[in-house]
Amino acid sequence: MKNKIIVKSINAITLRFVANSYSIFDDVFPLMVNGFNAYSKENNLDIDLELTFFSEDNNTQGYIDLYATLNLLKKKTNKYDIFAYDPLYLRSFTPYLIELDEWVDKELLDIYSTKEVLNISVFNNHRYGIPIILFYSVLFSNSNYLKKHNKGIPKTWDELIDTAKYILKEEKEKYNNTDLYGYNGFFPNGENSMSTFYQLLYSYRDDIDSPLPDIKSQNAIDALNKIKQIQNEISSELMFRSSETNTITALMTEKILFSFFWSTIKIPNYTITLLPSKNRFLNSTVYGGYNIGINRNIEENRKKASIEVLKYFLSEEVQRDIILKKSVLVSPLKSLYQDDNSEICKTVVKCSAMRNVKCITKPSIEMNNYLDYSNKVVDIIHEFLAGKKEVEETLTDIDDITRIYFFSWNDTFGLVVISILGFIFFLYVISIIFLFIPKFQKYFIFFEKELWLIYSLGSFLILCSIFEYFNKPSINKCTLRHTFINIGNAMIYSPLFYRLLINFPEVSKFIEWVKKIRIALVLFFIIIQILLSFVVDILHTYKIEVVYAQKNYSICGRNNNIGSKIVIIQYLFNIFLYISIGILIFLEWNIEETFNDIRNFTFSIIIDAISILLIIIIKIIDFKDYIMVNFLDIFINILFVLTNQIYIVCIRVLILKYSKKKGIEEKLIDNLLKFNESPSKDIKCISINSKPDIESTFSKTSDYSTLTKKIYKSKILNYHYSQKQSISSYANSEASQSQARTPNSNFI
């Protein structure tokens, strides 16, 4: 249900202030709202403030549930003007709140610019809220038991263990008190376990000004070992996992010596101090609170009125009043704790401790999906407390949640791949040298020298694209990899397409025109890919996407924009060249002048087809392993370079020069294309030059469509079995048929 407190003035702007109901703060917000309305009336501001609570009746997750508020903001509603929200979810609220640094006076912002405040109110260098109240994690120590056994409040974890062990032993042996726990641990289900975990880590930093220890550091190992020792020696897993409600009950019934809890409550017979650390010179606490933010979607006059409310809430007078009336809360205004003779310092809190306290907040602002991270961490910690995981495994699993793994040439596997690439690059250089060795020139007559260089440059670009798989992915790397692969493919396929086109076994004006423009056609295809790649870049087509797995990793994703459609066009363009090459190879299969070359390029084209199939399989199968995904991509590109460059330019030449035996590759092609082994005499061709035959056939079959299909089939087979270039398109089919044979040339 919604609870409302409304105080209205005639002709005033009515601002609506919404907050999630949480019993600790339910009397704080009305105090502030009523105070503002009185202030507004006294100063003729003509602003009325109306408070609405989203209570737990409608909110199954209570005060930590941000969804009710976010749903309102996502609808771009102007129903509410001011929001009180948990700074844990600052990142989620920022799209819907105004940037306060553009609306609030710099003098006020400077007052609220301590590290503690900035850590929970700034995102992307802008202020989207300012905390109006804070609370700390603290240690509750049972003063009755400490006084009874003449013990002091512990300042280190070891002191806490020793003190608790002594008191527990004394209580059991002297008073038969077995219903007492040394420490509550405070690892319930939910977000509070994260607070405990981060406070524990922070308490094991090296010195007072050191940052939070790395998750996989020795400090973190020591911290988890210590909390496990505490559980085993002075508490239990059941107590460590107790809910917030059960913890409060245990405190009220004095069944806990020492307890981690929040400063938002006071318990009789318990003294509140800072939590222990690994040594007496450190202190540590996790803090939370409520930020005030202003709706981005309201009108400007309402924004200005909301700023007046914000200024009132943040004034020194109001902040002092809140602390004096609600002593369990902490003000973000640190100047209130500077004077030890002030009313706050004398009656509410020890100000020297407040001035020296070292706070840490949880890393919610740094993560896209903090709630998911939090849930996973809590589950892992619970498994550790239950004895299902060792400390090193626990910390590694936690680290893996946020760590983005990438393929690096600094690890063993990366070094192996780099070594292979280095060897392939060496072979590539050798292949280029082959093109200029005089005694090998007779093996390179299929292409002109310029085309061989373009072809080889394409292989070089494919080889270069492999290096973009290493180290941390970036948008530039994704774009560069895409550019290298597409232009590289165009440089390899365009010369081959051009050469097969002019090799076509039929004279036509189009073929003669292609022969005249020569290399211009090849350059045209390449320039198309270059221009399209440039457009893909300027449209910011690529983005980095994180794949969440056991070891998270990043991949190149695409934005849903015009650039993505251009990428598809580039792929289709290369597929067009590939299919055209395949068709031309079939039609020119038996031409004597290019007999060996056709078969060698057929081998490389088949391997390319296998590579394309592998790429499709990789996209379909969700491997969830960054090493496997990157390795398969690299392997496919290496295979492409080996078959299209190293084999065609080097291995082919060496085998042709030093071997006269039939190559293995020809056997492969023969197996793949068995239908070509049929004797030419068994092929029945229909001459497209014989009109009487057509009429006769037509009259016999009464099916002109069937006859046409037979004619085209015959013509295609005539091309396929032709041994000479530039035959007449109207050559007698029987003559063509008599020419069709398989040459005795060795294949390589």
UniProtKB/TrEMBL annotation:
Q: How does it sit in the membrane?
A: Multi-pass membrane protein
Q: What does the UniProt keyword field contain? A: Membrane, Transmembrane, Transmembrane helix
Q: Pfam families in the record, alphabetically?
A: 7tm_3, SBP_bac_8
Query: What region holds the G-protein coupled receptors family 3 profile domain?
Result: 408-642
A GO MF term: G protein-coupled receptor activity
Q: Where in the cell is it found?
A: Membrane
Keyword Transit peptide recorded: no
The protein's name in its UniProt record: Periplasmic binding protein-like II
